[in-house]
Design goal:
The mean pLDDT is about 95. The protein is about 30% helix and about 30% strand. The relative contact order is 0.25. The longest helix has 14 residues. It contains five helices and seven strands. It is α+β, with helices and mostly antiparallel strands. The chain binds magnesium ion (MG).
Length: about 160
């Protein structure tokens, strides 16, 4: 196998916002009237990061590693999924370069939570805060995200051989 010293991965996720669920983003519970629907806690930020890390490794995706149909993953905290992905990354000889996340959400406004998300994501990755970037945007009232029916996130990750 050809192994490059630095590799890039991309991840994307979207979950519906529904009543009666807590809102988890980046491993942080955000006060909001609705939360993300999913078999796990629906944390689109951590799911996008998992997929980006797995993508950089060429190791499949989150659905393959943690199938919806497997009862072990029902209700699981996405922080646990990410920690398993990071353990796999390290076991395969990679370390994180950086991660850059964009969250698309109409509500709640995330500016006040960005610092907390960054701290939490860095801790889950075993990384320094300056290796982690969290950005937030709205979709200008357009599409399902813009109507507040869903929250989406994208992540780009670099990994490198120490
Ligand atoms: Mg997901």
């Amino acid at each position: 196998m050809h192994i490059m010293p630095i590799r890039v991965g991309h991840g994307y996720d979207l979950h519906r916002l529904v009543e009666g669920r807590p809102l988890w983003l980046g491993g942080v519970e955000i006060p909001h009237a609705r939360g993300l629907l999913g078999h796990s806690d629906g944390d689109v930020v951590l799911h996008a990061i998992c997929d980006a890390v797995l993508g950089a490794m060429g190791a499949g995706d989150i659905g393959e590693h943690f199938p919806d149909a497997d009862p072990r993953y029902h209700g699981i905290a996405s922080s646990e999924l990410l920690q398993q992905v990071v353990a796999r990354m390290r076991a395969d000889g990679w370390r994180l370069g950086n991660v850059d996340v964009t969250i698309c959400a109409e509500q709640p406004r995330l500016a006040a939570h960005r610092a907390a998300l960054r701290t939490r994501v860095a801790a889950l990755l075993g990384a320094a805060e300056n290796q982690v970037s969290i950005k937030a945007k709205t979709n200008e009232g357009l599409d399902a995200v813009g109507r507040g029916a869903a929250i989406a996130a994208t992540a780009v990750v670099t990994i490198e051989r120490p």
